[in-house]
From TrEMBL:
This is Glyoxalase/bleomycin resistance protein/dioxygenase. GO terms for molecular function: dioxygenase activity. It comes from the Bacteria. It comes from Geodermatophilus obscurus (strain ATCC 25078 / DSM 43160 / JCM 3152 / CCUG 61914 / KCC A-0152 / KCTC 9177 / NBRC 13315 / NRRL B-3577 / G-20). CDD domains: VOC_like. It holds the Pfam family Glyoxalase. Residues 1-124 form the VOC domain.
Amino acid sequence: MIDHLGLQSADVPAAVAFYTTVFAPAGLREAMRYETPGGPVVGICGPDGFPQLWLSPLAEGTERPVHLALRAPSREAVDEVFALVRAQGAEVLHEPRVWPEYHPGYYGVFFRDPDGNNVEAVHHTPPEE
């Protein structure tokens, strides 16, 4: 159900160091990092290597909205979520599309929930072999 969680941080490198240090016994480590104009965005993974905790710079003043991604069983399901979000009148942040900068086959839609949190429905299409 939960695919990944994103937290905003006033100091991303310090937050990464904290999480990877205190959760080292659980196998947490940095999986990937990319730079943005506001600073680094870092994906932390467990033993499976799949980044499920994302740390990013403060993006909206002093507010720290949560980013919650829920896994969808198909791209069609992501599109259905999008249609229902629009029907509810919620703010759409990004319409459904492939996000190759995350990984090949990453298909998601981003929107705000009633409390302003950044919510995502995502499907991970396996790479063609």
